[in-house]
Specification:
Length: 246
């Protein structure tokens, strides 16, 4: 669970940067390194930590009031998921995005997520369908409020809930790695959009699930992902970002 409180930090990377992290509740079930991992992961997924941001073990440990060891473990896990890069000088940085990388990650999302959705379809019961409907309503509420981070995290939760229904599902970790790589960049894009023109393709997915229509579900998930790609490609200054200007 996350709330709206933040943790402030003064991080030193390429330049001095002040930013605020979205706090993740530390429950008794979570060990410190797991909590640090979940916190950093959430902030990457919602784009609170942007591309090109440098992170330091010492800085994060001080900010979160923990020892360096759990931070080191969390960063190692995130590096394995391609969410961050560890440079030769041991600097840790959130990767920047290129047009080629964005297109590749987006195409991989379509392939993996349509597969995950269709393979989950036979396992979805009425209770799980009701959960998906509720989660879609939460996304709509976030859209109405213009809550960028809540939109991203709620949308991911909808897809995660759908794909994870399949007990034999093995593609979710791969999908989450793609989300982690795209999250910091997507936040920048959404913040540049003056208006959010959004068709709720989740409605089509929910209807396909009701009808146990695998083809329609495949099309709905693909349309949902392609809509996000189209919104990014429609930005007039997106090429300037890919050149490193933005």
């Amino acid at each position: 669970m996350s709330n709206h409180r933040g943790v402030y930090a003064h991080m030193k990377g390429l330049e001095s940067i002040d930013f605020e992290l979205r706090l993740v509740e530390k429950t008794t079930e979570l060990k410190t390194h797991q909590w640090v991992y979940q916190l950093l992961r959430t902030n990457l997924l919602c784009g609170r930590i942007g591309p090109g941001i440098a992170l330091t073990i010492r800085g994060l440990a001080q900010m979160l009031d923990v020892s360096p060891m759990p931070v080191r473990e969390a960063l190692h896990r995130l590096a394995c998921e391609a969410a961050i890069e560890v440079k030769n000088n041991r600097r840790v940085i959130v990767p920047v995005m290129t047009a080629e990388k964005f297109n590749e990650l987006s195409q991989l999302r379509i392939i993996l997520e349509t597969h995950a959705a269709v393979s989950a379809l036979p396992h979805i019961d009425d209770q799980q369908l009701k959960l998906l409907i509720l989660q879609d309503a939460q996304i709509n509420s976030a859209v109405e409020k213009g809550a960028i981070e809540d939109i991203a995290l709620s949308n991911q939760q909808f897809h995660r809930s759908l794909y994870s229904v399949n007990p034999a599902q093995r593609s979710v970790p791969l999908i989450e790695s793609l989300w982690l790589q795209l999250g910091p960049f997507s936040r920048i894009v959404v913040s540049k959009l003056k208006k959010a023109y959004r068709i709720d393709h989740h409605i089509g997915a929910i209807e396909a699930i009701r009808n146990q229509n695998a083809s329609a579900l495949h099309k709905a998930i693909e349309a949902d992902i392609r809509a996000g790609i189209a919104s990014i490609n429609s930005l007039q200054d997106i090429h300037q970002y890919f050149k490193g200007v933005a």
